[in-house]
Amino acid sequence: MSFSVSKGIRRAILDDAPAILSIFQQCDLFDHIGHRQLNIGLLEVMDWLENATDKHPMLVFEEQGDVMAWCSIEPFYGLPAFDSASEISLYVLPTSHRKGIGTQLFNYLEKERHYIGFTHLIAYIYASNLTSQHFFKRQGFEQWGLLPNIAQNEQIKDDVLLLGREF
User: Fold this and answer.
1) Do 148 and 107 meet the contact criterion of CB atoms below 8 Å apart?
2) Which one of 23, 31, 98, 146 has the largest count of C-beta atoms within 10 Å of its C-beta?
3) pTM score, two decimals?
């Protein structure tokens, strides 16, 4: 299978790992407050990249040689009945918010969904992350569930919303 080419969007490679980690840390509420980066480091990101497949790709949005955003599609649940459902993660550098980069990545995935093989996408969003909630709702996602106080560390607790979209 081959993905179509889109301006600025390409498959992530191992050399992108430092940029992907940096974007993840800058966008993660728990990283700023609770030092989650102690659990997610460069080796974990390299594992994500090495485990990416055609059905579960990891993509980056690049501008003038700099990675500005990344997106991954991962299995939703480990049973065959859920093979056409995938979890989506999408992170954009905070300095690049409101420039349409996230929308471009999402539109690319939507266009390639038949090649990737998903009919449903599920996003796990912190309840306090209103920016992500608004972004996914603009892409047609609806709230499908709530996990109360499931995200915890020493300083904070947060609910996680399950937002989903059927294609």
Assistant:
1) no
2) 23
3) 0.88
